[in-house]
Amino acid sequence: CLVGPPGVGKTSLGRSIARATNRKFSRMSLGGVRDESEIRGHRRTYIGSMPGKIIQNLSRVKVRNPLFLLDEIDKMAMDFRGDPASALLEVLDPEQNHTFSDHYLEVDFDLSDVMFVATSNSMNIPPALLDRMEVIRIPGYTEDEKMNIALKYLVPKQIKENGLKDEEIDFKNSAVREIIQRYSREAGVRNLEREISKICRKVVKKMLLKPDSRKIVISAKNIEKFLGVKRFRIGSAEENDQIGQVTGLAWTEVGGELLTIESAVVVGKGKFIQTGQLGDVMKESIQAALTVVRSRAKTLGIKANFNEKNDIHIHVPEGATPKDGPSAGVGMCTALVSALTKIPVRAEVAMTGEITLRGEILPIGGLKEKLLAAHRGGITTVLIPQENEKDLVEIPDNIKSKLKIIPVRWIEQVLELALVHQPAPLLEESEPTPPSPKVKSKDKKSSGVRAH
Fold first, then answer.
1. pLDDT one-digit tens code per residue, 78-108
2. Catalytic residue numbers?
3. What are the sequence ranges of the domains in the chain?
4. Who has the most CB within 10 Å: 141, 206, 279, 306?
């Protein structure tokens, strides 16, 4: 099963495997399939009964050993007509599929020679079905990979499809990089291809309205004439160090993204507010982060009763986007410390990791996508959990060379690297504990005088 975000070429990879293994290619889209009979077929007693899609496609390609692509396997649903995911268990199990039973055929059919390849956008697949497949993750593309794909394949393809000739249009490397950075922010290359296609159509229109023998050059300087105002700003990381604002790293189905975490402390009655459409797991990680800060209040130079006289508000911007997961725990904790101590957080530092009550940082998933997002967003230093250090083998060398990746295990290491300067701990003498014995001693003296 090929698992990856949209537009990274999972279906194209299936076709390439079929070509490389010299097999015929057959594709079946499972998106929206709700009926078990789509897989197993109908019984012949029904009017208009047909074999299942698997037998139909095999009869269409006329061979017993094609490459069969089960597209969008995570988009299947179930209703009163049965569960197609359960019907696929027999199809994908090599121990059972040599006697695959189709209701229409009423004889066993051998599927053991068929090569099944499934594609999916997420791991939202029933566990029994997932157990029968080998999962191959296909991550999003880096900026350099997108550049090469665009220059070698997408630009020539769109020039040809729009009826242009190579001597009529010239795409500069700077223009393609500008489209990648300013006009499309995605894990795949679908939007990139759309933007290139839009430029080609506008060039055709320009040539028809004002015929000119000169070649039209598309560069970073004139790209706004074709694509309009820039949609994204490169380096969405903050330019200035801010108090209570931390850059976290999130992983979505579309790839990695930078996640801004904001916290503010205002005078109040001890309320704790969380906003930004946060999921239950993320809310729990905020509570854990607050407990970590309270347990270390003295060493961080924060008064022990800070949560009684102040309202603390944590907000994760883009409130319309749902967010969940424990990997922002470190960012939440750092944002709280920064807001309470009034020490700014370094703008060029991003962090990811789950936090425990002891302040230990636990491993997270989607490291490659998160590091790609940090690189794309202009971050220079990334703090990752120490247990994720082994995953750095999968990261391209050009990304590792441009990022300073620091594995950390405890929250103290994170604060040391993320804050502009370290908070001064509260001194023992400043605590108001000594007055009580003094009062007692005064009483004793006065009582002694009266007795005398």
1. 766 667 888 888 888 888 888 888 888 888 8
2. 327, 370
3. 2-137, 143-227, 245-428
4. 141
